[in-house]
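A quick aside before the break. I want you to see a complete sequence-to-structure record at least once, exactly as it would be stored in a machine-readable document. Don't worry about memorizing anything.
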Amino acid sequence: MLSGAIGHSSGNSSGTTQSGQPPEDRYIDSLREPVRTRYLSALEGTPGVVATLRLPSGAAGTYTSGGCVGYVRKRLYGSVRAALEDPLVPQDMTRLLGIFLNSYHPFLSALHAWRQCMASAGWRFATPEAAIESVQILAAKGASQAEMDRRQIPIADADVGCDARSHLRMHTSEARIKFVRQQPRKILAELQGIYITRERAVRRALQVLSSARRGMG
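That is the input. The structure line, written in tokens, reads:
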């Protein structure tokens, strides 16, 4: 991954294990020197040999391009930089959109009206996405279909009515269009290029998996 303002390097630099760490990070933290350094070099390449990636928001970080991880990224995406741009640039744009929405008055007014309407129906959610997430959490806990229906059907009914009154989704779509139109052509071209590169990477990944399956057969 990236170190600096927009990410972190693989492994925990402090060498401590934290709750919620991925298994691979916990494994790296368990290694002693010099094994840990050799492992990270094989995984990510020579320490200190880095490049910089700057995102549309201005945030920047460094990344390594060697090692096993770099090899796989290059094979799928054509370059390590392209592999990192795939998730990070859209994530950065989503964050910028969130900032824009929080300053767009028609959206904020519609969201306030939607919240009040949902509350009057007995449901308190910050956003429609939060309402959907509450149902997903219930499903993740193993709720039966009957339990799911008792929650999601009335929530959906209330949401439909409240959206009709507040026009929240209409104003959200309107805000997204305005946000996109404000972006420089360079950013829009970059996003289009990322989409094309991702599609190509997916095709390559499927080809690799298909070859691997044939080899195992």
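Two observations worth writing down. Residues 77 and 197 are 7 Å apart (CA to CA). Residues 104-178 form one domain. We'll return to this after the break.
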